[in-house]
Amino acid sequence: MPLLRVRDLVKTYQVGDVAVRALRGVTLDIHSGEFVAVVGPSGSGKSTFMHILGCLDHPTSGEYWLEDRDVSRLNDDELSEIRNRQIGFVFQGFNLLSRTSAVENVELPLLYGKSVSASERRKRALAALDAVGLADRAEHHPNQLSGGQQQRVAIARSLLNNPSILFADEPTGNLDSRTSVEVMDIFQRLKEERGITIVLITHEPQVAEYGSRIIAFKDGQIVSDEANSRQRIAVGELALLPAG
Amino acid sequence: MTIGSSVSIALRALSRNKLQTALTTIGMTIGVATVLTMIALGSGAEAAIEQQVRAAGMNLIVVTAGNYKAKTEDDGGGVVDHQARWDADSRVRQGRLRPVFSPQPSALSPRVVFAAFHPEDDPMEKHDHPTARQRLGDTEAGLGMAATLTPADAEAIRKLRGVQYVSEGIHENIHLTAGDKRWFTRYHGGDVSLPSIRRSWTFTSGRFFTEREQSKQAPVVVLGAFVADKLYGDVNPVGQQIMLWKQPFQVVGVVGSSSFMMTPAAGDDQFDAIYIPFTTIHQILNLSKLNDITITAASTGEVTRVSKDVTELLRARHGISMTSPDDFTVATQARQSLAKGGLRPDVARAVVGNVGGLEKVTLEQLGRTLDRATKTMTALLGSIAAVSLIVGGIGIMNIMLLSVTERTREIGIRRAVGARAGDVLRQFLVEAIALSVIGGLAGILLGAVASGIIAQMLRWSTSISPASVALSFAVAAAVGVFFGYYPARQASRLDPIESLRFE
Known about the structure:
In chain A, β4 and β5 form a beta hairpin. Chain A starts with a strand and ends with a helix. Chain A contains 8 helices and 10 strands. In chain A, α3 crosses α4 and α4 packs across α5. The longest helix of chain A is centred in the C-terminal third of the chain and has 18 residues. In chain A, the strands form 2 sheets. Chain A has a 6-stranded mixed beta sheet, with helices on both faces. Chain A has a 4-stranded antiparallel beta sheet with strand order 2-1-4-5, covered by helices on one side. Chain A is of the alpha/beta class. Chain B folds into 2 domains: 187 residues, no CATH class; 210 residues, no CATH class. Chain B has 17 helices and 10 strands. A 6-stranded mixed barrel of chain B has the order 2-3-8-5-7-6. The longest helix of chain B has 44 residues. At the A-B interface, α2 and α3 of A face α1, α14, α15 and α17 of B.
């Protein structure tokens, strides 16, 4: 049984008098442990697709099953709970709270959902920071960290509730090439070591090649969906790159 | 999300913008401080009027032995006993009442004149001691010969409903000696509750005599401030001995006036006087009767009822038949003191000027009128001050709306990691409440200080009651909820995706 099951998903926005059809009937299965790269030019509907899959938005019509639940029928509070427990997000702009330390940023998901004691929150946040190699930067504020470090804090945050899926929206857009490869390495390791399903949205074909499966969007529809036979392995590339 | 973490998030968010937070709370602080100060001033005025009313004897009832009327001055200073003419003898005959002092047969003539001539009455005479006129109450002392009141009467009155304090009274003039100094003054035998009845008393040193000293008939004495000054000057008299009736009495306290309207002076009945337990006097002088009984009613409005009850009780106790007049006099001092200026002149003027047909007004109505007037004043002051609270609240609302816009992205991030709309609403609401409550607490502090300063500067009594503090606090929190709800709801309604894209 697939982890994600999408059937004929349609999303229409009303912009003034014009109805913009962002998604025009998307059907798709994603299985647990896949590293799916979604590519397409801007305006192709890939971001809208990710927002719906990430439970940030409702589809206009169609079905979306996450594990055994029909997410398209859930209300706002239930969607919030799913975002909290099953889904992690990594954004292009990192989206960390400014003037808040790294460890406090990482703790954020634990404030919502079932209550966790303050000391337990801190412990888990520090462990997550350690896992992305930032244990020594726990008390730094985002503006004291480099872009790559900020993105790693964001990844630590997204993993805190042990989600089954990680959505990454252009995670390397603001990063240089070496840190981009580092982030990809983290994703690939998460997939291998923890079996986390990763959905990576990008417009760069080279970045998409780190995925095990590449889905191409155009005009709100899937134009190609195939396994990636030439998957790039980040850890190997890192060894060849000069140390940053 | 727990309330505790909401509060800590709110406080952290507020501490990030200290200047903004401080400026916003100042609005609340001033609002709450104003309300509190106004209420304190208002209820202070209320309490002051109430106290003045009581100090003026509005709740005072004095029962005097005998039922006499002083003749007018052209009667030569003598006193006519109207009752004795046809009453005292009849009662003696009936055997119900046995006056301690039996009038001479001549006293039964139509015009009974005691002390028809006294050396002190000679206007040309020079005296080295206060004359009868200066010694207040000499004539009343003479009337006291009709001794009809007993400590048992006082005890019975204590049990009446609405009675607050009762003091037995026995008064006479006395020579006292302290070392080589002598003073001619007046003693008052009283009950331990006397300081509670004389509200304007303060003990400049020492204390009043105790229950124990009263029951043991101890030879202790409390000096009026004027007497203490005459006898001891600057020396503290407490612990010294004075001689009364050739017996040593120990001074346990000095009583002075706490009211700036009344300063101890020669010949005044309260501070040119000494106080002794009435039991001690009874024992030493071998007496068993009282000159008077002083009663306070628990509430000003009940004076009329209580005095009626006292009259009925005493008539019953003294076995006076329906047709016979009282053998005592019950006097309430309200109207008397109003007219005489026992009230502060400004208050008395206000009362006399504003209460139509004062003579017809019962005490109860008068009390209620005063209550209403001061309550109206408090309400007026409070509602004017409440306007500043609204202004403070609008300040909070303004800053919260700004904050929601500023932190749109933060809201988006929180929503993305699983915050429900309700969590966001609560976060901003708690922040608004925290702003108003912090401002409110500071306001309570400021208000307390301000009303303290006003009380000192204007000599206007203010009182900050726990209730008004609680009210201010509750109002502050309510302002936070009221003015914080709209911005918080705006925050909770933001679309997560839109907020995440917000720059």
